[in-house]
Amino acid sequence: MNTPQRYQVVHRQLEIPATVTLEIQAVDAAHIAPFSPGQFNMLYGFGAGEVPISFSGSPNARQSYRHTLRAVGKTSEALSQLQVGDQLGVRGPFGRGWPMDLLIGKHVLIIAGGLGLAPLRPVIETLVSQTDQYAGIQLFYGGKRPEELLYLSQFKTWRSAIDVEIIVDRAGPDWSGHIGVITQLVNTAHFPVSNTIALVCGPEIMMRFSVQTLQSKSLPDTAIYVSMERNMHCAIGHCGHCQWGPNFICKDGPVFCYDDIASWFYQKEL
Amino acid sequence: MRRENCVAICTRTHTVQWHAQRTGGFHCWLRTIATHQLHGSATPLLTVNANELVNWSWLIPPYRHRFDARALTALRTVALNGTCIRKKCDIDPKLGFDLLRRLSAVIISSLHNAQFQLLDVYSTHS
User: Fold this and answer.
1) Which residues of B are less than 8 Å from A143 in CB distance?
2) What residues are paired with A169 via a beta bridge?
3) Beta-carbon separation of B121 and A176 below 8 A
4) E runs forming strands in B34-122
5) What does pTM read for this prediction?
């Protein structure tokens, strides 16, 4: 798991400008290691470096992984330029994912912002495939502009199974959906407080406001889960780059129950 | 002082006191210069959902609205007579204080949301 394995890009999808989804298969093995939604791989662009990228495909896939990544630095830029047939190194899966077992029988609120939808797509695909096991499923997705929303082609499928609400910061006259901030949508949500679990992923500022909104609706901290994806370097808790209070995000996270990290959530410079 | 209205889809209004009461929503449109021209376009700013206030310019001087609104779905609204309310508040400062205290929370929340919208928060998460 901790030695990079050779993988090959078998499919490349440009989602939005500078953001691609790579489907990769192992070169030297027939099967891939199973993963849980919310976990991540370390993707190594040869000569460019290594970055942690969450799984964004179905956890039921046994032949390939899918990763959605945005070109924001040298390494992710190199990875985003990979074409079908190109190779890369992969270590993983790493980390603790979303509490899938706890979701059974619950009303599930999924709150995603921007690229934060990628680590939640495995959750959504799992839930959509077995909706009868949950009391209710609501997806709230916020983005900057309509043309910068991820996986739009899949929303039609998802809408047939779960409640989906999308909101953008800015839009043109043609947009007939919500405009504003994602907390406005969460504010309008109706859910049974005692039987709901919320999964939140996106920019930290968006997660902070979302958590505050959920708290204002009396959802207990123990029912809120957030994905903290930052500063991860070695992925095995050795280098200390991602130490966050008593936790290592790469090893103890990236998904945390808010109740466990509430005291660190608002600490600056951590 | 209070009037209920049924608003059909795509209705645009220049009145200032809309309060969405049931399901449905408004787009509040920023009137751009182009809006004043024939066939001009407008820039949508935000969506107002059920039980939210569309406009509060009737409360604060100079009592002029700068936004237009368009109903995205059929809905019911409540219109308030701003002039009448202000007169009542002048007569009864307790009423005025209470009204301002309630509405200031709405206004501040809206201001915070606008500030949040201006931040380019979604571009940095990787």
Assistant:
1) 122
2) none
3) no
4) 43-48, 67-71, 75-80
5) 0.87
